[in-house]
Design a protein that fits this description.
The chain is globular and about 45 Å long. The strands form two sheets. The protein has a six-stranded mixed beta sheet with strand order 4-3-2-5-6-7, with helices on both faces. It has a three-stranded antiparallel beta sheet with strand order 1-9-8, covered by helices on one side. It has one domain: Rossmann fold, CATH 3.40.50.2020. With 174 residues, the protein is α/β, with parallel strands linked by helices. The structure holds guanosine-5'-monophosphate. Guanosine-5'-monophosphate (5GP) binds next to strand 5, helix 3 and strand 8.
Length: 174
């Protein structure tokens, strides 16, 4: 790994503190319920595992994997489900756990897909949000950090499958 190309944007300490706050907010809002957390593979795995260890309510976890496809993968808006949920979300209080909202196309699609299965409620928590890049109107219910239009890696986020294991969120200068 070439550390010279990486610049820390959000430190591990800042992430830890913010994830705890998010976990407290979510635990308070879902008190007496048993939310069904849907982690979006692979980027949200580290965020989800830290988030749930800071939550003090009953919960369930499942995962989905999606990919954008088309000539221009970032703007096609076409999302393909590569791995679907193993359990039904009908009547459940679903909380999608995502690493980053960029154009908003992925979460827009995921929310439509899950809403069509009639959950009792549906909310989204994202660790990062790049509001400047939105192509569709989308606002997460819980957000860790709003960041500028920069490509970031670490804490689960990759570049060609590298850098997921970094403890900090870093700007990657290619
Ligand atoms: P959207 O559909 O909102 O444009 O894209 C969301 C997905 O794009 C994220 O789940 C993530 O996989 C990818 N993505 C967007 N911005 C970044 C970034 O800065 N770094 C990395 N590693 N992935 C990103």
């Amino acid at each position: 790994m070439d550390r010279d190309t990486l610049k820390v944007l959000i430190s591990a300490e800042q992430i830890e503190e913010r994830v705890k706050e998010l976990a407290e907010d979510i635990s308070r809002d879902y008190k007496g319920k048993k939310p069904f957390l849907v982690g979006v593979l692979k980027g949200a795995v580290i965020f989800l595992s830290d988030l749930i260890r800071n939550m003090d309510i009953q919960l369930e976890v499942d995962f989905m994997a999606v990919s954008s496809y088309g000539a221009d993968t970032t703007s096609s808006g076409i999302v393909r489900i590569q791995k679907d949920l193993e359990q039904s979300v009908k009547g459940r209080d679903v909380l999608i756990v995502e690493d980053i909202v960029d154009t908003g196309l992925t979460l827009n699609y995921l929310c439509e897909n899950i809403n069509s299965q009639r959950p009792n409620s549906l909310r989204v928590v994202t660790l990062l949000d790049k509001p400047d890049r939105r192509k569709v109107k989308f606002e997460a219910d819980y957000c860790g950090f709003k960041i500028p239009d920069l490509f970031v890696v670490g804490y689960g986020l990759d570049f060609n499958e590298d850098y997921r294991q970094l403890n900090d969120i870093c700007i990657l200068n290619l």
